[in-house]
Amino acid sequence: MPPRIPTKPSASSASALVRSSFVSPCTSQCLPSCRAGFSTTPSRERSTILRRDFMMWLKTRGAKYRHPNPEGGPNYLASNTPFPLNPQFRSDRVLDEQARELIWEKVMKKGETLKAVSAELGVDLARVAAIVRLKEVEKDWISKGKRLATSYSKAILNMLPLKTFKPGVENRPLEAINEIHIHTATQKQLFWPTAESRQFTREDAAKAFHAKMLSADKRVPHPELIRMERDLLRDMSPDEARARFISAAEQSERQAAEKQRRKAMDEEQATKKVKTSRFEFRFKEVDSELVGKDGRAPNVVGWKYGMPHYDRKKGLVKIPTSVP
Amino acid sequence: MPRAAQRRLHVLNRPKLRQSWSKYNLYNLWRTRDPKIGLADAETFFQQKWRAKGVLRSYHGEHIKERDWERMFSRRLLSVADMNPRYMAANDGSEMAAGRGSGQDMITPYMNMTFAPMERRLDIAIFRAMFASSARQARHFVVHGKVKVNGKVMPFPAYKLNPGDMFQVEPDSVLFATGQPKKKGGSGPRKASKAPEDNSEAEPAAEGAEAAEAAEASEVPEQDPETTDKPEAPKTDMKPTKFAIMDLSKQVKTILTRDRDLSALQKQNLRSFLKRAKSLLAKAGRSTATPTDIIDELNKTIKELNLSDDSAKAALTESSSSEQADVSSRPPPRSIEDLNAEELKALQRLIKEDEENPADPTKPYHTPWKPRDYMSPFAFIPRYLEVNQNVCSAVYLRHPVARNGAAEVPTPFGYGVNQLAFNWYLRRR
């Protein structure tokens, strides 16, 4: 902080004038502030060295970051990552409009299964479903005449690394589609003595880790793909193997849909609905005797002796955990 | 200690990295070097962990209370392994049991997943989907009911997204957050000829109130508490008025130089107008000036200026109300029949662009919409999100995971720093 010269309230205006005439080099500089508030404190310098450096950077090396890359594509501080100190985070490619439209058409117009589309284009199963869902929202907006954020979309896609698919040709995959979660039970080291002569397969390894654990072949999102590759290894023609894969994918999706439908139906049957003018009351049968081994199971209904009841406790987070 | 809302978000001395697209943050990101924690013997393990946690926590959800984050933290780090179908078809796994090992692999950066639970939060997911320019702004949108999850308004920024949840942000809010700010004076951004200080003052409005405050606070000198001076009355922004006068005199000058068939009287009138405009400009610079006074006087001068040439007069009066560029220098309009095929196509493209991105003064951002400055170095969309920018919606596909050689949590520091922070939150210290 610059030193402050205390103002003298007793000093008359005449003496102040005399004083100011002696310190003439200063007066020309701080004249406006003197006139405003009779303060002799020189005004503070507005810019610090740090700020000047920052401004200089904006004009020189930082200038190219002001606007998006004129050729399109990413414009990061480091070559492939927005964080120069973390090369282990990569900015992955995203699908462009054409690719999304192609996926939507395959699923909604041609009626191909999600699994088949995912395997053909090399896009994660959940991503295929999400793309179709979002595209449906987009089409809905168009049909309702709601304005899309087209300019925003174009600008953002212009800044990102993009991946496109061409219809009717074999496309290179976007990402690995057959990934499995690494189960906690498999993260420990095991000492598991077996005979040297024994074929110790993935199936056996799963059993060794946990009695109920499924093998990796059953846990992958695309077990049908492994079967197709086996067919191909057995010298089946590619077309036939592909047809078998597609029918297997269809069947598994049908089964999944059937399972979901049955679950919803069971839920429906178990609930008794009473409609009033304002609310719909839904009643479910609950057995209050089912309280677990020690009578204190956490998810059972009702108040249990010795167990805290957190429903209305102050200071606990009560925001919803899911939106159906 | 000041409350989180009062602290400055972006600073130049002792910089902290933030979840924000501010140019200050970009500069800090560019100049930050590896903190080199634990490379010298000078620090104890506790100190190393403390510092690592500090640098990371200032980036990851600095608006979230430490207690809340500690609750969120999970020591279980998610990862995936790629199972190549062709390899799985050819081998049953017994080749792994043969004891020859699998060779040196790339590491799976588990430790970079320390702040993975944070990415489940609704506000941070909105920032990651590029619907807001900072996590704080994303939080603001959520609190103000601009965000829906699975079609229902979700007013809680701390809502943890579940795999498959779709969140939608009001497109107007997104355009406001990611677009150029509206300039105070007029409807559009001024041309490139601007003073450099002016440049620094034109902070993007979308940066959040904190950032703007921070920038202002660094420029306004402090009031000395000992002096009893009255603070000066708030200044009215005279810049637009000044620009209007300058534009007008520029136009008059071009008319004077270009138009050969002006009468002597007209020329005299125009020159006297130029003189008056000059004095008006000086008046506008004074502290007592108000925009209405100046504009009134300007209008009076224009009325006094007797122009028989209607087009010139029209041009002048039009530009006195709005600050249009040089109107009189435009070529005379042609009819559509005169255009050739190429020009027609260009015209159609222009019309389409205008339809998609119209100029609309009622919007709180600059129209036609353009992306804000210094946005592209921050542009990435992590793999656990699928975003459709057209409808400003995104789906949270799954929790972020680590895989061989890469982790999906966007974090500004590398493995070592994250590892120390992870150890801090294990609470064995």
TrEMBL record, chain A:
Region annotation Disordered: where it falls in the sequence: 248-271
Pfam families: Bot1p (PF12298)
PANTHER family: 37S RIBOSOMAL PROTEIN S35, MITOCHONDRIAL, SMALL RIBOSOMAL SUBUNIT PROTEIN MS45
Listed InterPro entries: Ribosomal_mS45 (IPR021036)
Annotated Basic and acidic residues bias: 251-271
Protein name, UniProt field: Ribosomal protein S35, mitochondrial
Domain of life: Eukaryota
Automatic annotation (TrEMBL), chain B:
RNA-binding S4 domain residues: 120-180
Keywords linked to the UniProt accession: Ribonucleoprotein, Ribosomal protein, RNA-binding, rRNA-binding
Cleaved signal peptide residues: none
Low complexity bias: start-end ranges: 202-218, 319-329
Gene3D superfamilies: RNA-binding S4 domain (3.10.290.10)
SMART domains: S4 (SM00363)
Domain of life: Eukaryota
Pfam families, per database record: S4
Similarity-based family: Belongs to the universal ribosomal protein uS4 family.
The protein, known as: RNA-binding S4 domain-containing protein
Source species of the chain: Apiospora phragmitis
